[in-house]
Amino acid sequence: MKLTHQLGALALALFTAGLAHAETIRIAIGTQDTTINCATGGVLIRELKLLEKYLPRDGKYKDAQYDIQWKNFTSGAPLTNEMVADKLDIGSMADFPGSLNGAAFDKAGKKSLFITVLSGSTQGSGNGIVVPKASPIQSITELRGKAISVPFASTSHGMLLRALKANGIDPEKDVTIITQAPEVAGPALQANKIDAHADFVPFAELFPYRGFARKIFDGSQAKTPTFHGSLVNAEFARKYPEVVTAFLRAAIEADRLFAAEPEKYSDLIEKTTGIEAEVAYLFHGPLGLQTRDFSWKPEYRQALKTSIETLRYLKRTDADLDVASFVDDRYIRAAFKQAGLDYEAQLKDYSKLPLNAKDVLTGKPITDFRRLGQVWVEGEPKVRHYATLEAAVADARRIEAGGKRIRVIYAQDYGSGIKLLARQAWFAQDGKGQLAAFLLKDAAATWAKANHAKVVDYASIQPAAKLASH
């Protein structure tokens, strides 16, 4: 009888253990598909089914079933609400909403962890200020007395406040700032109902690309780092650390794929999100506005501290988050190790996605990227690269004359190095026809004066041969 009882207890124990191993693990992930900085933590993982590739299948996960759930959001606040309510386990967002995420968890007696950067700029590129296309305003200093809209409590809100103050404009007295989401700001710009709009990735470039706005300020001018990254419910991470690491392995794989074929995956982003591939490439292609970077550089930690301070100033939170405990790099370090990558080396690497290309006309390697021109022709899978802007412009016009459509032309700002939409840029053109591109008209004028050149917009660029004959 005793032996029977013992065998029964053993059988029950084995059955219970089997149930534990066979548990269904929910992995509910909140994404921001149109915020393309989050692509490697969301849309690309989902569309390419990369998480399934890396989920653990051995040890305590040997018989586990996975219930992967995806939910898309247009901003970080509602995503955070669902994370706090335990409807989501992982979510991706920018530094400002990420800080509010940590504060919301703290207020609820819980904890979230910022586990990785996905993409960012230690310079501050990504955020920007635009005006209606026909506006006479050329720079931020001309916004005094104007009405500016911005998504409140966003990373672009913090950028706007700092940029105004840096240019001697009191945000509370000298301008009128109203809250406006990008989907509202777009029509407002088109109808000239606002003088300017400040926004985050990708709208300060998307609106100009769509033809109804013009960029007058890039976040890099404020020299304030900004980033998007992924957070996790700390309790989920404690219970399933290997799953969190698998999610980051999938993000690293998404980054590798994009780096290898940026045009292909920019097109995928467009098909999935509606954000044009030309804008995705502007941000994330070689020498792009943003750098996909999974390492917690000091500048990104500082960006979090700055966001917390700014949100307290805006009275959007009274939390005093400890960044040292809010940021947890254990999981990304584990993912790097599993992927055979050197995390410490990445911490020290500030380079953008490099461009290793030859001039499409001469076949010679391109080494000076200050005057780089790039042309994406409709129907061609790859962007064409040119050693000089004047060659790119001339070839683009030749291609158009032949009946083909040009998807986009890119230039690099001669001073800052940020990538520009050439058709919206300003240029200094010298007597030999050589071009240098600039975001701001004033910057082009300053360079032109020092280099015996004249300021032109894209439509006014003259052929090099014609200028050279004068």
Automatic annotation (TrEMBL):
Residue ranges constituting the SsuA/THI5-like domain according to the UniProt record: 111-263
Secretion signal span: 1-22
Coiled-coil intervals: none
Regions crossing the membrane: none
Record carries keyword Cytoplasm: no
Database matches in Pfam families: NMT1
Keywords: Signal
Presence of keyword Signal: yes
Xref: PANTHER family: ABC TRANSPORTER SUBSTRATE-BINDING PROTEIN, ALIPHATIC SULFONATES-BINDING PROTEIN-RELATED
Protein's recorded name: ABC transporter substrate-binding protein
Species name: Chitiniphilus purpureus
